[in-house]
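Hello everyone,

My group is preparing for a crystallization screen and wants a predicted model to guide construct design. The compound we'll soak is manganese (II) ion. Before spending weeks at the bench, it would help to have a computed complex in hand. I've included the protein sequence and the ligand's SMILES below. Output in structure-token form would be ideal because that's what our pipeline reads.
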Amino acid sequence: MNIPGIILLRQNFLIILVFFGMVLSGLIYLNNIQCSCNQQITEQVIIKSKWKQKTFGLRSSSGLFYNQPSALVLGRTDVAPVTSWSAPIIWEGTFDSTLIDSIYKHQNLTIATTVFALGKYTRFVKDFLESAEKYYFVGFRVHYYLFTDKPESVPEVKMGENRSLTVRKVPSLNRWQDISMNRMEKLEKLIEDELSSEADYIFCLDIDTKFYGRWGAESLGRLVGVIHPWFFDAPRDRFTYERRPVSQAYIPAEEGDYYYAGAAFGGSLKDVHHLTKTCRENLNIDAARSIEAVWQEESHLNKYFLLNKPSKLLSPEYMWRDINEGAAQIKIIRFTNVPKNYAEVRPNP
Ligand SMILES: CC(=O)N[C@H]1[C@@H](OP(=O)(O)OP(=O)(O)OC[C@H]2O[C@@H](n3ccc(=O)[nH]c3=O)[C@H](O)[C@@H]2O)O[C@H](CO)[C@H](O)[C@@H]1O
Ligand SMILES: [Mn+2]
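Reply:
Good plan to model first. Here are the tokens for the complex, ready for your pipeline.
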């Protein structure tokens, strides 16, 4: 080969080399993009599966005897057993406790249950815990979390098998409204930091309360609200929703489904985490504008449930006015407020 021929060959060789170099770096670039995508997907999967979700379905045992459910006849005709968005409303006579317990026992559940007792409200702890041990999720694993500013005053209560109590010290607060509202933030943190790998469901309850009847697996659901005992038969324009548009809890007179109690709500960890986070954020926005909703976090909870419909509602049997009060529709009082002298027990009016 002559000299110009050799030069030509070398030039072609260089061009081919550069071409392959470009293809190779292109491939490396694409591969990197794919890797970082995979990484993002893995992270998403981890975030999603952070919540311990069991999806066993509603398994039942053979050989279990119970009354045949009817497609035609309602268990109750004097109350509504379902909402207009097809969520069940749990009333006595609408479920079979033996069947429900047997279904949920298969799932080996842990139910976290939170209460707050600050200041003089520590006096309610003993009756709450003792009555819960008798009636609340009997036969299931229950982990109570009690937040108090006086851990030393928490009484010794004998816990059943698979049942435990964790006491957390929290700072005292001067206003009952702040104590009540502050629960949302504390619950949000508890779920985030500790419960995700520990519990399957959570219920958040008032402490000035007592159980008098079964509260069991019929109450379990993704997002659970309790119909307030004073408003189950009232028209929505009479509900004590927050009516000032400046508040994040605002609900106009022509909107609203039910009036829900602030004293009891629950559901899956993921859903209750979202609920507490949203309410805490909205409480903070209101506070920054120097506005406090008429019924504090209960107002924000009602706004949340208007925009995020509960998947299950509990009738006022699950949060009644007082053990000595009745109503035609209340066939059993499961959980009720205990009477209190507001002026004496609260730190401020
Ligand atoms: C039946 C019902 O739905 N009750 C709600 C209602 O009034 P309540 O009269 O039930 O409110 P409350 O005085 O019981 O306060 C709510 C909770 O805050 C805690 N606490 C309060 C004061 C105190 O000094 N120490 C203390 O620990 C305690 O856990 C108590 O159960 O409105 C409140 C907010 O405005 C809450 O939404 C309550 O859940
Ligand atoms: Mn209360």
